[in-house]
Design goal:
Layout (H helix, E strand, L loop, with lengths): L2 H15 L4 E10 L9 E4 L5 E3 L7 H9 L8 E5 L15 E9 L3 H14 L5 E6 L5 E4 L8 E3 L3 E6 L4 E5 L3 H12 L3 E5 L3 H4 L7 E4 L3 H9 L4 E5 L4 H11 L6 E4 L3 H15 L3 H4 L2 E2 L11 H16 L8
Parallel strand pairs: 10-11, 10-13, 11-12, 13-14, 14-15
Antiparallel strand pairs: 1-2, 1-5, 2-3, 4-5, 6-7, 6-9, 8-9
InterPro entries: MoCofactor_Util/Proc, NAD(P)-bd_dom_sf, XdhC_CoxI, XdhC_Rossmann_dom
Pfam families: XdhC_C, XdhC_CoxI
Protein name: Xanthine dehydrogenase
Amino acid sequence: MNNLDLQVLEQAAKWLDQGYGVWLCTVLATYGSAPRSPGAMLVALPTGDFCGSLSGGCVEEDFLERLGREEFAYRSQIIRYGEGGFAPNLALPCGGVLDVLVERFKPDCDSREHCAVLLDALKGRQQVVRHVKLDSDQVQIETDTTACAPISVESDHVRIRIGAAQRLLIAGLSPVAEFCAGFAAALGFEVVVCDPRPELTAHFKMPGVKLIEVHPATYISQGGCHAATAVVALTHDPRLDDLTLMEAVTTPAFYIGAMGSKRNSQNRLERIRRIARLDDQSVNRIHAPIGLNLGSKTPAEIALAVMSDIVRVKNGIVRGAL
């Protein structure tokens, strides 16, 4: 899941707590060109306030206008944008087709509890499946996700699997780390920076980036990593980097990497192998030197190489296929 979807559910929870009924939209399928993938979410109020995205903007405006005109019934339904969908919008500017699940949640305890469970799932605490009965207001949470596709649509119900939002955990501030944080936020990652050094954290502030002033190894040991987490150590400080790597390899993080030259990286891996008594399988999980070989020299270029490699691994692309 994308970090924007985490923001959507956080906003939905806030509105529900304030006594507002909310409309939750989820992209179920796309055909042709589409800027957001199935599973993307948007939450809205009839006043036109909203959070999230379903497309590049061509759908949201029309949806909010229809919502304001009370065109949607208070029941779960699937709507279509593009050919065969709402008239007169038979063709989207991008040429694609978008199927969207639209649900209305009352500001009651059941809705707030449902939203809280989904937030837990996006934060990596569990994985769940939403079971939505169409043409009704019935929605249930299932915890058995073993045989469930990410999204399945049948004649009378929809099932949507909800898992952790992609997270980038940056161990320690540095010029490269700051560029990585910016790139990752733009790519939709939940970005967490851990650094216990007040002389560096005092003036750090970046939209969409959470700063936690603890040692990154401590944050990881307290459950800061899940299977959708990438961990990067970018400081050249072994007091931060080494401990972070030793803790990270005990987690299901999908990417673990550390910045450094080939020689320094080899020395680091041998050092943490010896100190933490790591086996080959654990050590081989660490990308060091980190990033794709783009000939990077500046902090921005190095950060680009790092994030490119993380996206490569996230998307299941082997280096030889590049």
